[in-house]
Specification:
By secondary structure, the protein is α/β, with parallel strands linked by helices. About 40% of the residues lie in helices and about 25% in strands. The chain binds adenosine-5'-triphosphate (ATP) and magnesium ion.
Length: about 325
């Protein structure tokens, strides 16, 4: 049964269409990913579903409640970890959790028990009474996830849970997210622009660009939809190569003076391709299993830029830190 049901969701900011009539539903206990580049509309969708932003037009339900007419019911059944840091650095980890639980009207006994439980879940028991300003980026993110779980949410929104973190810390956070699903049966909606994160964690992924969902399926099916392995080659005369190689590929695409060929079996196709190319100049050639980035490229003709998003997140984090000082 769907715990989130979105029908024709639209959000405009002074004429700018941030979310363009999108529809999707998420099943109970699913980890559902919104994957897309900067400005695709991921945070806007989460903000509307978490009732932080009013949609321009919508028919969307979360936990069976309407986002426009029943926002308070929705707030009781969701947790959210914002894209921008939102902990109070001058409080300890325990105080941050306690403050949050008081805002949700939890009794003192429930607060104490749950604080211990969620701190253990993200392995921060030892640092419970340290000020957050002494925490690393990864520890802060883990504490924010713990805080999102304090009031027993059925749905947890994670907006870029690992943005700007190093790969090792990112893997630790992934482990906690998988545990959330297994241990608590929480439905997780996460946004990310990291292909690997979406691939490893999500049961299903909606790939977004310019406020629209351009593909939605399991990671495996999205990659299979490209029609097999990929052979990417660069050469002097791409048009000529394209006309010679068309017959070997189930799909063929041209981008940045490269050709990307979808083939059933790259290892068997490669010798045939080399023979067909003959004396034509090839600068480089590589074979690979398709990634989600290839899926994005296939639908948009562009690649998702990870570094740019990382830089933006660091800029945002610095700005938030300055504002708090
Ligand atoms: N409060 C706002 N006022 C005006 N425009 C906004 C506002 N919030 C978002 N937008 C615009 O809506 C579009 C979608 O933004 P959104 O933050 O949802 O993207 P995103 O996919 O989360 O991007 P990122 O990966 O950078 O977090 C962008 O063009 C953005 O500039
Ligand atoms: Mg965002």
């Amino acid at each position: 049964m769907a715990i989130i049901d979105v029908r024709k969701l639209r959000k405009e900011f002074n004429g700018l269409v941030a979310v363009d009539d999108i529809s999707f539903s998420v099943g109970k206990g699913e980890i559902f990913g919104l994957l897309g580049p900067n400005g695709a509309g991921k945070t806007t969708i989460i903000s509307v579903l978490a009732t932080i932003l009013k949609p321009t037009e919508c028919e969307a339900k979360v936990c069976g409640y309407d986002v426009c007419s029943e926002p308070y019911d929705i707030r009781g059944c969701i947790g959210i970890v914002f894209q921008d840091p939102s902990l109070d650095e001058k409080l300890t980890a325990r105080e941050n959790l306690d403050f949050h639980a008081r805002m949700y009207g939890m009794s003192s006994k429930k607060r104490e028990d749950k604080i211990e439980e969620v701190l253990e879940m993200v392995s921060l028991q030892d640092r419970a009474d340290s000020l957050v300003e002494t925490f690393s980026g990864g520890m802060r993110r883990r504490l924010e996830i713990a805080r999102g779980l304090m009031h027993y949410p059925k749905v947890l929104f994670l907006d870029e849970p690992t943005l700007g973190l190093d790969p090792q810390t990112r893997h630790v956070i992934w482990k906690y997210i998988v545990e959330l699903k297994k241990k608590y049966g929480v439905t997780v909606i996460l946004t990310t622009h990291y292909m690997e994160e979406a691939d490893k964690l999500c049961d299903r992924i909606a790939i977004m660009d310019n406020g629209k969902i351009i593909a939605l399926d399991t990671p495996e099916e999205l990659k299979n939809s490209l029609g097999g392995d990929l052979i990417v080659l660069k050469g002097k005369d791409v048009q000529k190569l394209k006309s010679k190689l068309k017959k070997f590929a189930t799909k063929i695409r041209e981008f940045n003076s490269s050709l990307s060929l979808s083939v059933k079996d790259a290892e068997k196709s490669l010798p045939k391709i080399m023979r067909a190319v003959g004396g034509d100049k090839i600068d480089s050639i590589k074979m690979q299993k398709p990634t989600l980035d290839d899926v994005f490229l296939h639908y948009t003709g562009r690649r998702i830029r990870e570094e740019k998003a990382d830089k933006m997140s660091k800029f945002r984090a610095r700005r938030m830190a300055r504002m708090r000082r």
